[in-house]
Protein backbone atom coordinates (compact mmCIF):
# COMPACT_ATOMS: atom_id res chain seq x y z
CA UNK A 1 0.00 0.00 0.00
CA UNK A 2 2.73 2.46 1.01
CA UNK A 3 4.79 1.46 -2.02
CA UNK A 4 1.89 2.17 -4.41
CA UNK A 5 1.13 5.43 -2.60
CA UNK A 6 4.74 6.56 -2.98
CA UNK A 7 4.76 5.45 -6.63
CA UNK A 8 1.66 7.56 -7.35
CA UNK A 9 3.10 10.53 -5.45
CA UNK A 10 6.28 10.47 -7.50
CA UNK A 11 4.35 10.04 -10.73
CA UNK A 12 2.22 13.08 -9.85
CA UNK A 13 5.30 15.19 -9.06
CA UNK A 14 6.86 14.12 -12.35
CA UNK A 15 3.74 15.22 -14.23
CA UNK A 16 3.66 18.58 -12.44
CA UNK A 17 7.34 19.33 -13.08
CA UNK A 18 6.90 18.23 -16.71
CA UNK A 19 4.03 20.71 -17.04
CA UNK A 20 6.52 23.39 -15.97
CA UNK A 21 8.90 22.21 -18.71
CA UNK A 22 11.59 21.42 -16.14
CA UNK A 23 12.86 18.28 -17.94
CA UNK A 24 14.52 19.65 -21.13
CA UNK A 25 16.47 17.14 -23.22
CA UNK A 26 15.62 14.16 -20.94
CA UNK A 27 17.40 15.94 -18.05
CA UNK A 28 16.31 15.62 -14.43
CA UNK A 29 15.64 12.73 -12.09
CA UNK A 30 13.31 12.14 -9.16
CA UNK A 31 13.36 9.79 -6.20
CA UNK A 32 11.05 8.84 -3.33
CA UNK A 33 11.75 6.68 -0.29
CA UNK A 34 9.69 3.48 -0.05
CA UNK A 35 11.33 1.85 3.01
CA UNK A 36 13.64 2.57 5.95
CA UNK A 37 16.25 0.32 7.53
CA UNK A 38 17.24 -0.78 5.06
CA UNK A 39 16.65 2.16 2.75
CA UNK A 40 14.79 1.48 -0.49
CA UNK A 41 13.54 4.03 -2.99
CA UNK A 42 11.97 4.57 -6.38
CA UNK A 43 14.01 6.55 -8.89
CA UNK A 44 13.37 7.63 -12.46
CA UNK A 45 14.81 5.40 -15.17
CA UNK A 46 17.80 6.88 -17.00
CA UNK A 47 17.66 8.73 -20.29
CA UNK A 48 13.90 8.78 -20.68
CA UNK A 49 11.78 11.73 -21.74
CA UNK A 50 10.36 12.59 -18.31
CA UNK A 51 7.46 14.44 -19.94
CA UNK A 52 6.05 11.09 -21.07
CA UNK A 53 4.03 8.85 -18.77
CA UNK A 54 4.96 5.17 -19.28
CA UNK A 55 4.94 1.97 -17.17
CA UNK A 56 8.79 1.97 -17.19
CA UNK A 57 9.32 5.44 -15.75
CA UNK A 58 10.62 4.31 -12.34
CA UNK A 59 12.81 1.54 -10.96
CA UNK A 60 13.03 0.29 -7.38
CA UNK A 61 16.52 0.35 -5.87
CA UNK A 62 18.28 -0.43 -2.60
CA UNK A 63 20.41 1.74 -0.30
CA UNK A 64 23.33 1.60 -2.74
CA UNK A 65 21.22 2.38 -5.81
CA UNK A 66 21.17 -1.19 -7.17
CA UNK A 67 18.03 -2.67 -8.73
CA UNK A 68 15.93 -4.75 -6.33
CA UNK A 69 14.75 -8.18 -7.55
CA UNK A 70 14.10 -9.14 -11.17
CA UNK A 71 13.52 -5.70 -12.65
CA UNK A 72 14.79 -4.55 -16.00
CA UNK A 73 15.53 -0.87 -16.61
CA UNK A 74 18.41 1.41 -15.74
CA UNK A 75 18.34 3.68 -12.69
CA UNK A 76 19.16 7.35 -13.26
CA UNK A 77 22.83 8.02 -13.95
CA UNK A 78 22.68 10.35 -10.91
CA UNK A 79 21.12 7.81 -8.53
CA UNK A 80 24.17 8.07 -6.24
CA UNK A 81 23.14 11.62 -5.28
CA UNK A 82 19.73 10.38 -4.16
CA UNK A 83 21.51 7.53 -2.32
CA UNK A 84 23.39 10.17 -0.30
CA UNK A 85 20.14 11.97 0.57
CA UNK A 86 18.31 8.85 1.75
CA UNK A 87 21.26 7.36 3.65
CA UNK A 88 22.33 10.57 5.37
CA UNK A 89 18.94 12.05 6.27
CA UNK A 90 15.35 11.10 7.05
CA UNK A 91 14.17 12.84 3.84
CA UNK A 92 11.39 11.12 1.94
CA UNK A 93 11.82 12.71 -1.48
CA UNK A 94 14.68 14.07 -3.60
CA UNK A 95 14.18 16.05 -6.82
CA UNK A 96 16.75 17.11 -9.43
CA UNK A 97 15.96 19.46 -12.34
CA UNK A 98 17.90 21.46 -14.90
CA UNK A 99 16.42 24.89 -15.62
CA UNK A 100 17.96 27.83 -17.42
CA UNK A 101 17.53 29.96 -14.30
CA UNK A 102 19.26 27.51 -11.95
CA UNK A 103 22.10 27.05 -14.46
CA UNK A 104 22.65 30.81 -14.92
CA UNK A 105 22.57 31.43 -11.16
CA UNK A 106 25.04 28.59 -10.59
CA UNK A 107 27.46 30.14 -13.09
CA UNK A 108 27.05 33.72 -11.79
CA UNK A 109 27.68 32.68 -8.17
CA UNK A 110 29.77 29.54 -8.75
CA UNK A 111 33.11 31.16 -7.87
CA UNK A 112 31.62 32.19 -4.50
CA UNK A 113 30.58 28.59 -3.85
CA UNK A 114 27.12 29.63 -2.67
CA UNK A 115 24.21 32.00 -3.12
CA UNK A 116 22.32 33.58 -0.21
CA UNK A 117 18.77 34.89 -0.13
CA UNK A 118 17.07 37.17 2.41
CA UNK A 119 14.15 39.61 2.54
CA UNK A 120 11.84 37.53 0.37
CA UNK A 121 8.40 36.41 1.55
CA UNK A 122 8.74 33.11 -0.35
CA UNK A 123 11.55 32.05 1.99
CA UNK A 124 8.69 30.98 4.29
CA UNK A 125 7.99 28.18 1.77
CA UNK A 126 11.41 26.84 2.78
CA UNK A 127 10.20 26.53 6.38
CA UNK A 128 11.94 29.71 7.54
CA UNK A 129 9.39 32.01 9.17
CA UNK A 130 11.64 34.17 11.35
CA UNK A 131 12.32 37.87 10.71
CA UNK A 132 15.40 38.40 8.49
CA UNK A 133 15.79 34.69 7.71
CA UNK A 134 18.69 33.98 5.37
CA UNK A 135 18.83 30.93 3.12
CA UNK A 136 22.10 29.64 1.69
CA UNK A 137 22.41 27.29 -1.29
CA UNK A 138 25.87 25.75 -1.82
CA UNK A 139 27.20 25.49 -5.38
CA UNK A 140 29.49 22.56 -6.21
CA UNK A 141 31.54 21.85 -9.35
CA UNK A 142 29.96 19.64 -12.00
CA UNK A 143 32.34 16.68 -11.75
CA UNK A 144 31.79 14.27 -14.65
CA UNK A 145 32.66 11.30 -12.45
CA UNK A 146 29.43 10.58 -10.57
CA UNK A 147 31.01 9.11 -7.40
CA UNK A 148 33.17 12.27 -7.17
CA UNK A 149 30.09 14.44 -7.74
CA UNK A 150 28.15 12.46 -5.14
CA UNK A 151 30.96 12.92 -2.58
CA UNK A 152 31.05 16.69 -3.16
CA UNK A 153 27.25 16.76 -2.89
CA UNK A 154 27.22 14.62 0.27
CA UNK A 155 29.32 17.22 2.10
CA UNK A 156 26.20 19.45 2.10
CA UNK A 157 23.61 16.81 2.98
CA UNK A 158 22.97 17.06 6.73
CA UNK A 159 19.36 18.00 7.38
CA UNK A 160 16.00 16.47 6.45
CA UNK A 161 15.52 19.36 3.98
CA UNK A 162 18.09 21.05 1.79
CA UNK A 163 19.28 22.07 -1.66
CA UNK A 164 22.53 22.01 -3.61
CA UNK A 165 23.26 23.68 -6.95
CA UNK A 166 25.61 21.87 -9.33
CA UNK A 167 27.39 24.43 -11.49
CA UNK A 168 26.03 24.65 -15.04
CA UNK A 169 24.07 21.48 -14.40
CA UNK A 170 21.04 21.83 -12.10
CA UNK A 171 19.66 21.72 -8.58
CA UNK A 172 18.85 18.87 -6.21
CA UNK A 173 16.30 19.56 -3.46
CA UNK A 174 15.20 17.12 -0.76
CA UNK A 175 12.56 17.22 1.98
CA UNK A 176 10.48 14.94 4.21
CA UNK A 177 7.65 14.49 1.68
CA UNK A 178 7.08 14.82 -2.06
CA UNK A 179 4.77 17.78 -1.43
CA UNK A 180 7.46 19.56 0.63
CA UNK A 181 10.22 18.80 -1.86
CA UNK A 182 8.16 20.18 -4.76
CA UNK A 183 7.18 23.26 -2.75
CA UNK A 184 10.81 23.95 -1.88
CA UNK A 185 11.96 23.39 -5.45
CA UNK A 186 9.37 25.90 -6.66
CA UNK A 187 10.49 28.41 -4.01
CA UNK A 188 14.16 28.11 -5.04
CA UNK A 189 13.31 28.50 -8.72
CA UNK A 190 11.23 31.59 -7.81
CA UNK A 191 14.24 33.07 -5.99
CA UNK A 192 16.57 32.30 -8.90
CA UNK A 193 14.21 33.86 -11.44
CA UNK A 194 13.62 36.93 -9.25
CA UNK A 195 17.36 37.45 -8.76
CA UNK A 196 18.10 37.27 -12.47
CA UNK A 197 15.21 39.56 -13.40
CA UNK A 198 16.18 42.10 -10.75
CA UNK A 199 19.79 42.17 -11.96
CA UNK A 200 18.64 42.66 -15.56
CA UNK A 201 16.30 45.51 -14.57
CA UNK A 202 18.96 47.22 -12.48
CA UNK A 203 21.44 47.07 -15.36
CA UNK A 204 18.82 48.53 -17.73
CA UNK A 205 18.20 51.48 -15.36
CA UNK A 206 21.86 52.33 -14.72
C1 LIG B 1 20.61 14.75 -20.71
S1 LIG B 1 20.98 15.51 -19.20
C2 LIG B 1 22.46 14.64 -18.65
C3 LIG B 1 22.22 13.71 -17.49
C4 LIG B 1 21.61 14.46 -16.35
O1 LIG B 1 22.24 15.40 -15.84
C5 LIG B 1 20.30 14.18 -15.87
O2 LIG B 1 19.80 14.86 -14.99
C6 LIG B 1 19.48 13.04 -16.41
O3 LIG B 1 20.12 11.82 -16.24
P1 LIG B 1 19.23 10.49 -16.07
O4 LIG B 1 20.22 9.37 -16.17
O5 LIG B 1 18.58 10.59 -14.74
O6 LIG B 1 18.20 10.48 -17.17
ZN1 LIG C 1 21.28 16.20 -14.00
UniProtKB/TrEMBL annotation:
Protein's UniProt keywords contain Ligase: no
* Gene name as annotated: mtnB
Residues holding Zn(2+): 96, 98
Pathway assignment: Amino-acid biosynthesis; L-methionine biosynthesis via salvage pathway; L-methionine from S-methyl-5-thio-alpha-D-ribose 1-phosphate: step 2/6
Which family would the database say this protein is a member of? Belongs to the aldolase class II family. MtnB subfamily.
Sorted alphabetically, the keyword list is: Amino-acid biosynthesis, Lyase, Metal-binding, Methionine biosynthesis, Zinc
Give coiled-coil spans as residue ranges. Answer: none
Q: Give the reaction(s) catalysed.
A: 5-(methylsulfanyl)-D-ribulose 1-phosphate = 5-methylsulfanyl-2,3-dioxopentyl phosphate + H2O
Enzyme Commission no: 4.2.1.109
Boundaries of every Class II aldolase/adducin N-terminal domain copy: 8-196
Q: Does the keyword Transit peptide apply?
A: no
Described purpose of this protein according to its UniProt entry: Catalyzes the dehydration of methylthioribulose-1-phosphate (MTRu-1-P) into 2,3-diketo-5-methylthiopentyl-1-phosphate (DK-MTP-1-P).
Q: Which is an annotated GO molecular function term of this record?
A: methylthioribulose 1-phosphate dehydratase activity
What SUPFAM superfamilies has UniProt attached to this entry?
A: AraD/HMP-PK domain-like (SSF53639)
**Full protein name:** Methylthioribulose-1-phosphate dehydratase
Cofactor notes: Binds 1 zinc ion per subunit.
**Essential cofactor(s):** Zn(2+)
InterPro entries annotated for this entry?
Answer: Aldolase_II/adducin_N, Aldolase_II/adducin_N_sf, MethylthioRu-1-P_deHdtase_MtnB
Amino acid sequence: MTFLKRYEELRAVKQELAARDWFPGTSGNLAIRTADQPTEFLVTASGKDKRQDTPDDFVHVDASGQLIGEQTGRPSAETLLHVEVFNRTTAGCSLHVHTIDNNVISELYGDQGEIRFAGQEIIKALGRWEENAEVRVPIIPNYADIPTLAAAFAAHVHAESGAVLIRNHGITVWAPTAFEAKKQLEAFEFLFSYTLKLQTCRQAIH
